[in-house]
Amino acid sequence: MQHRLVVSSFLMLSIFAPQGRATEAAAPEPTLDTALIEQLTGAKGQLDPKEGVFKVSMPRGDLEMRVTGVHVTPSLGLTTWAAFARVGDHAAVMGDLVLLEDQVNPVMSVALDAGLEITALHNHFLFDSPKVMFMHLAGMGSEADLAKAVGKVFAKILETSGGKGEVPRTEVDPARSTLDPKRIEAVTGVPGTLKDGVYKLVVGRSTKIDGHVMGGTMGVNTWAAFAGTDEKAVVDGDVAMFESELQPVLKALRGHGVQIVAIHNHMTGEVPRIVFLHYWGVGGTTELASAVRAALDLTRGATP
Questions:
Q1: What's domain 34-160's architecture?
Q2: Which residue ranges does the chain devote to CATH 3.30.1460?
Q3: Helix (H) or strand (E) holding 299
Q4: Which residues of the chain form CATH 3.30.70?
Q5: What stretches of the chain adopt beta strand conformation (E)?
Q6: What's the pLDDT tens digit per position in 91-132?
Q7: Which CA distances in Å does 56 have to 49, 79, 132, 195?
Q8: DSSP conformation letters of 40-64
Q9: What is the pLDDT of residue 302?
């Protein structure tokens, strides 16, 4: 009833308005300050007037990448970009970053520290040399803050290009592992099994597909595998999490110096949606187990 009264009042005002008197025009939608975005990101952009989206781009012309003999140029899919749009009183940004493997984690840390979200990390090619990864980001907030954040990310890409990124190195042979499983279990709180020099722990989670529960044995699980010595070890693993848990887990693992390897889905149609994060860490077993424990503590939410 209230909605009808508002509409009727608007119509009456229109009908009985004096002849020749223009009715008050609706306030125009706020527009993006494209010059400010270019200034803060350090990249040139182009406006799509139909969608009201301003997209800045940074072609990775510095990458001499080939796929089975084909020279892949920026126009063939090697362009970093970020697109800005107005969403009510705020702005939103979405983007895709073209990165060499050693750039992924330093650039990710800058993005997270700047308040952006990382939504996916994967490859777009097979048989590419050098290996190129694609990291998708998103954010919502003030136009200036988002542009500043993207500018920091773009600057880090330039800073780490040419092999100046982050490569965790160690020499570990699982056949010669001497690590103490009890030390890892004491930190993680999860018992595991030792086989062929690898100590592995698994924590099941669950979701539903078509109303049927899919649990840990079906692949909905978090796991971590350790090899090496207590002083010099490697951990390899996968974290299964709800979408709301992704950003806290990313920050926790990067805070412990663990490398993020991939962020993607393993299923389709599941409710709630499960995101999988693959990681790789190098260090002492206590340090690495602490990183795994941090991820576990953030992903012990309710199951469906």
A1: 2-Layer Sandwich (3.30)
A2: 34-160
A3: none
A4: 174-297
A5: 45-48, 53-59, 65-67, 70-72, 79-87, 90-100, 117-122, 128-129, 132-141, 193-195, 198-204, 207-209, 212-214, 221-228, 233-242, 259-264, 270-271, 274-283
A6: 999 999 999 999 999 999 999 999 999 999 999 999 999 999
A7: 14, 10, 20, 50
A8: HHTS-EEEETTTTEEEEEEE-TT--
A9: 52
Check whether domain 174-297 has CATH 3.40.50, yes or no: no
* Alpha carbons 167 and 164: distance in angstroms, whole number: 9
What the block records as the tokens of 202 is 């698994």
Q: Cα separation of 138 and 51, whole Å?
A: 18
pLDDT higher than 50, residue 275? yes
Q: Are 13 and 6 in contact (CB under 8 A)?
A: no
> What is the pTM (predicted TM-score) of this model?
0.88
- HSE-CB at 84 with a 13 A cutoff on CA atoms is 31
Position of tokens 């697109």? 83
Count of CB atoms situated within 10 Å of the CB of 147: 26
- Measured CA to CA, the distance from residue 296 to residue 90 in angstroms comes to 34
